[in-house]
């Protein structure tokens, strides 16, 4: 029987004496499986008023059972993603560039969000709809950034027109925009 299955079986036990009898087996399995399982085992110990000791330095989590009923007060209120994104001081970008302390400032993050959103939308609308006036007088021409950089004579094309430089800028600015979101720890880090 695998260590995970052994621990899952022990976590379902309702009798305190049985939990005490299988304590060593449960702790060995939890040690092998990682912090999330250790936290669930600590929750079982607290549920049965079993002395935890100082072996594990994890916050206990109540074990999940099939017969559990969920009440509204059991759930944690999580702020909407847009609120935390707008006011974050711990973005993915600030983690990638730890030497740039200005990225930890929520106002700087807001400026990046606004600037990158505007730039990305401008580049997208230029490529898809065109933002320049053609000979007909309608805004239906796209600025070809590749032709503009190479100083070619014809730098406007009928929209939609996708040139390499515009697509590259769109991808770069959209990626930077997404990197301003709050940093989220991956579940793999919790297991180790």
Describe this structure in words.
- The protein is 51% helix and 5% strand.
- The model has no long low-confidence stretch (mean pLDDT 81).
- The protein starts with a helix and ends with a helix.
- The radius of gyration is 28 Å and the shape is elongated.
- Strands 1-2-3 form a 3-stranded antiparallel sheet.
- By secondary structure, the protein is mainly α.
Widest beta sheet: strand line-up: 1-2-3
Detail the poorly predicted runs: none
Helix proportion: 40-55%
Question: Which structural category fits the helices and strands?
Answer: mainly alpha
Strands, helices and their partners?
Elements: H1 3-11, H2 16-21, H3 23-33, H4 35-47, H5 81-86, H6 92-96, H7 106-128, E1 132-133, E2 139-143, H8 145-149, E3 156-158, H9 164-178, H10 187-191
Antiparallel strand pairs: 1-2, 2-3
Helix pairs in contact: 1-3, 3-4, 7-9
Please summarize what this structure is.
The protein has 192 residues and is mainly alpha-helical.
Features:
192 residues, mainly alpha, 51% helix
